[in-house]
Structure formats: C-alpha cells, structure tokens
Amino acid sequence: MMTFDKRTTGVAVAVAMFCLIGSARAAWAQAPAPAGPPPTWTGSAGAGIAVTSGNSDTMNYNLGFDITRTPKARNVMKWTGLYLRGDQNDVVVVNRTSLAFRDEFTYSGRTFFFGQIDYLRDTFKLIDYLVAPTAGIGYKILDTDPAKFAVDAGAGTISEKNPGVDVRTSAALTASEKLQLQLTPTALLKHATTGLWKADDLEDGLYTFSIGLATQISPRVQLSVDLLDTFKNKPPTVATKKNDVALVTAITAKF
Fold it and tell me: Does the predicted model carry a pTM greater than 0.85?
C-alpha cells in the first residue's frame, strides 16, 4: 500500500490542476470558431461558349445568374435569369431570354406559400414577350441536406405578345416540381418541371423541363451541364416548332 503525506498530496493536486488548465487551453485553441449567422445574400453567375469552324461556323454562348436573399429563416426570395444565343454562318439560330422572381414563405415545417413572376422572350418561338405573375401553395416532400423535393400549384394571369398580334391577357394556372440530390460532397443533381396554362384554353400550355449536374471545381467555382426542354402546345403559327431543346454548359462562380 502506498501512503502520501500532506505535502505530497498538495503537490499532486497542483500538478493535476496545471495539466487540466493546460489541456483546456489547448482544446480551446484547436476548437473551430463558432459559425456565424448564414449570409443574407448568396448567389452565382456563370457563362459558357462553344465555337466550331469548318463546313459550318457556329458560335453558341449563354449567360446565367441566380441570386437568393433570406431576410428571415422562413422567407426566401430568389431571382434567376438565363440568356441563350446561337449563330450559324452569321445567321442567328437561337435567341432566348428567361427571367424569374420568386418570394417563398414557409408556413409550417413543409407547407409554403409563394408569389412569383416569370418573363420569357423567344425569337424563334415568335414570343416577343410573355409575362406571368402567379401565386399559390406548395409542399416540401423531402427537405434534408442531401435531398430536397417540392411540389406546388398556383394561379394568376398571363400576358403574351406575338409579332403582328395585340397582347393577349387571360387567367392562368401553374404547377411545378423541383428536385435536388447531393450525390457526393462535390456533385449536385438538379431537376425541375413546370407547366403554365391559359385558363380559358387549357390546351395552350407552356411546359419546361430541365435536368443538370453541377460539380465543384473549387470552393467557389463549379462546372454545370444542363439539358433544357421548352414545349409550347399552341405556337403562334403552324410553321413554328412546338419543342426546343438546349444543352447548356457553363462555368459558374458562387458569391
């Protein structure tokens, strides 16, 4: 059996306290700084270009952006835009601009309300402009970090202007579904489908489908490849094709 006198006990206690304080200081120095509040503004901007020469000279380029503002945890506002332009042998073959703004408020854990406005200009679909402000309700079927899937439906108005025709305005119905899957820490799969119908003629619908993959090059730069399909069931003329497909590749910078 080992025995300790008062002096030995006091030294042992002092040494133990010194080691404990030293360990606490080391742990504090190594611990990461506490995370601050999430930024109010986030977004990204990207551009892509493809050039060919030989039997035919082509140039295709795209510009896109998305900006998100989160003033409160339950409220999200988002602006998006995409411009596509294509020239073949000095003749324009693609000229499309789409813009959108959406304000979304989460009412409960998975139910949300939204208001949005969409704008489209497409030279080769003979759409001088199409503007559709709508509002409605949606539900988040999945809402986790690796997987997000939501559906929504709403109503509003639609105004469409075609060459040589006066602006036509009518009530509108809309529905959409969106999916995001974080495949790996650096790869994201994105998919969305939307439908916009004129309430007085449900056969006159505008449908958009997109699927894409984004892979991270650096913490603030990523490469994205998206397939976009736009289908209008009743184009302005018989000669106008209903369906347009575009493959968009871009380098995107986050901020």
Answer: no
